[in-house]
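Task: complex structure prediction.
Instruction: return structure tokens for all chains below.
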Amino acid sequence: MVSKIKPLSLGMLLALSATAAQAEIRFNGFASIQAGTTLSSSDNLYGYDNEVDFKNESLFALQAQADLGERLSVTAQLMGRGANDFKAEFEWAYLTYELNPQTRINAGRLRTPFYRYSDFMDVGYAYDWARVPSSVYNLDFNNLEGVSLVRFGQLGEVDSTLQLILGSYSGTTDINMATTDADIKRVAGATWELVQGDFTARLAYLTGKLTMVDQDGGLSGLLNLLEQSGFADTASQIRIDDANSAFMGLALGYDNGSVVLSGEVVRARVKDTVIPTQNGYYLSAGYRINSYTPFVSFERRDNDGKAAIYQALAAENPFRPAVTGVVESFTIKQDTWNIGSRFDFHPSAALKVQFSSQKDKVADRRDQLLSVGIDLVF
Amino acid sequence: MKKLLLAAFAFASSVCIADIAVIAHPATADTSLDEVSRIYMGRAGGLMPVNLPEGHPLRDQFEQAALGRSPAQMKAYWSRLVFTGKGRPPVEVDSVAAKIDFVAANPNSLGYIPASEVTDQVRVIATIAN
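Output:
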């Protein structure tokens, strides 16, 4: 999940150093060193191939937080991902204002809270798997610039965390191997997490206006050609221009100290574009035995390309093969099984071993990956 | 040497099997044990919880008894909040004596100590029997 984000200005860091004299700065950090290899030379999964790779999913992050007094603080998290050659970028950089002990406002670069584990998906130490389930955690728009309000509360026995978020995203993502500029304007959303004893439930709903333009112009060129040739209707059904987008997610969890269960189901829609409804879910079960937490999980991703777009073109239409190719490239059907274990071998570090086997039902192939990693927090 | 070992053993066992007193400044109102665990999990504001250092046996015992989590689980729990702007862990002091002093000096603070070490500087608001 490589999200290339333009580096923020150094303003936030300067703000930190400027206050160094008056304010206490706390440093925290986390790191993951993960190695993986697929089981056969033709396999490819999560960026790994048959050569043992230590870089692909490894990352280092350092967070600095300065208390400015009067309930105001500033936080910056600098992260270097192996997949990005450990080039450090600000993953988070925000001001926090504590309205009251139950309510805080964060403003700046934040994580978009699509998923239950979105906020800490990079902090491997915070969960048992080697990585968050990619069948669900696959929207590339990890971060946004905006403002978020988090409110903690209690409803009888239930602890509630409500988050409201507003902002926008601008960056690049890869669609079918093509680097694509992506903009989401007017991101607005709410998440609500309820915890009662061992049970957790979380709901998320976000909307935005998505625009995507491929950098090499392959798709844009085809769309222009369609328009010039009298197939503007087809082009408009494909083009991703200020498209109404909506994301829904539901997560459930249970953790009684020994048994750890979790599941999440998500659906995303980008109206009147080539992007089909995105469906994904996972179910995971683990069992803590002293320092070990073995687990097994199943994931499914199920996106049907919008065949109606090319079916509307006559069979002999010269554009039909190209349009079909574009539409069908969005069909994704994958089932993945994971089995592995976490081992808390040190107060600040966990060792994880995970085997993943993914069946791609469109390409009719299976890819298998073994990964071993250490996650630290400090 | 034998005496020292015995003393060390007695100390260790007094820490590990002692009843825990949750203490607060004398001016603090009653707080339920549920509320105390919410405060130590960063889910409720109002009072300022004071912790002992990581690896301190009394902290491990308190977190297991009152919060139902092992040290590794607590660390994972806090890493979910610290790196996401949702909260920060309680302040830490080095020793039980330092904690009593801190709580006695700070009207809104809260701590846990062995029940046998309670002084009249602080008020016991809850007890966790071993």
